[in-house]
Design a protein that fits this description.
Two copies of one chain form a homodimer. Chain A contains ten helices and six strands, in the order βαααααβαβαβαβαβα. The first copy, chain A, has 237 residues and is α/β, with parallel strands linked by helices. The first copy, chain A, has a six-stranded parallel sheet, with helices on both faces.
């Protein structure tokens, strides 16, 4: 353990579901969509169809609330065979605006961890999603002061991290990423020779899940809550 | 002239309507919206109301096609008093996807200018808008190879440019910005002590226009087409 983190100079944090609650709000919105469209299908089927449309639209819309709302409206038109009421569409627009304007709910211990680690390390945020949304959330979170750099990425593949580290002049061996998504925050880092700590959130979007096989052999730590990572670093001193 | 650009080391380019056509597609989409809603209002009134809704939603949705489509749908619900057909909504979703997937139409001389300037200067892109959209457009444009850095900003105020230059370790005096929007690409740069060259595009979104008074006294060059800026730099050598 000691050796493993000895070289680390920069620690990257994912934002949604690592620093604050996010996926929960999407789940709630999906449930609301289910209720709005309950006339046409079962909640389960609505969930599945919404996911299908989201994935189909992902290359076009990317991540974030706006694309989610557009997909939800598309679903409503489809499931209803073009007979859904204007009221339902209006409700969906409202759901989207409410999601964008939700207050930030920090996860347990986040501020403590950042405060401690920022004394000895350069901290950055590497998040996926809508640029304006993510900037606004960071602003509202009150956490901006702990970070040297904020990067909003359109994707989190190996190549995106490589480019980011190159641009910030960080050696992969000197970088540790902390996040809730195995697929986006952990495996790409392991693959480029950086370190990663997985802090699972209780809910994971289907698109972010990975099979046991994909994660097989990858070396990373898993902790139950963000505060646990402090132990590694105090043991490290 | 000679002295003015002697210190320049880095040249920043706006993207939409500076490197390639963009606003034209929004105008076309607005005309389509006008036809789709012609049942309820005159084209002129529809334009005005759409603009109002866009500006109202700007703090929530930000710039880009997705927010535009959501605003267009909101307008349809409002103007029709909740009676617009599903078909119209479906058409609006289609308009948005078509806008996002448009091929890139480079403006005259763009590639030449970038090729020439990239020999002697570091070139960067500083663009406002949707992260995924802008990255995709740059990819499709074939222009990526000329740029050292791409920055997608959620806003283009003085502070955003200041932070960008600081992060990239560029002195304002060593920076020249080139773009079509007085409000976003020119005035903020002049205000922070950098240089700016205005290349007007034939169409400007109402939100990007500035009054004569706001621009009063600001020192910047205006050229008719991008290729003209080469003259300043060859004269400079």
């Amino acid at each position: 353990m000691k050796n493993k983190y000895n070289n680390i100079k920069v620690i990257g944090f994912d934002a949604d579901d690592t620093l604050w609650v996010n996926e929960t709000y999407f789940r709630e919105a999906e449930e609301q969509a289910g209720r709005l469209l309950s006339h046409y299908e079962t909640p389960n089927k609505i969930d599945q169809e919404l996911f299908k449309i989201e994935i189909k639209n992902l290359p076009t819309y990317g991540y974030g609330v706006k694309g989610f709302v557009l997909s939800m409206i598309e679903l409503a038109l489809e499931l209803s065979n073009g007979t859904v009421s204007n009221q339902v569409i209006a409700e969906m627009l409202k759901i989207g605006k409410a999601m964008i304007n939700k207050p930030i709910e920090l996860l347990d211990g986040v501020e403590d961890v950042l405060k401690q680690l920022s004394k000895d390390y350069r901290l950055i945020v590497a998040t996926k999603g809508d640029l304006l949304d993510q900037e606004r959330k960071l602003q509202k979170s009150g956490l901006l002061k702990y970070f040297h750099h904020i990067e909003v990425l359109s994707e989190k593949h190996d190549i995106n991290y490589k480019q980011l580290l190159k641009r910030l002049d960080i050696e992969p061996e000197a970088f540790l990423m902390v996040g809730n998504s195995l697929k986006s925050d952990i495996l790409p880092l392991v693959s480029i020779g950086a370190q990663a700590i997985h802090v699972p959130f209780h809910t994971t979007w289907q698109h972010e899940t990975v099979s046991k096989k994909e994660a097989n052999g990858a070396e990373y730590k898993t902790v139950k809550s963000l505060t646990e990572i402090l132990d590694f670093f105090s043991a490290n001193k």
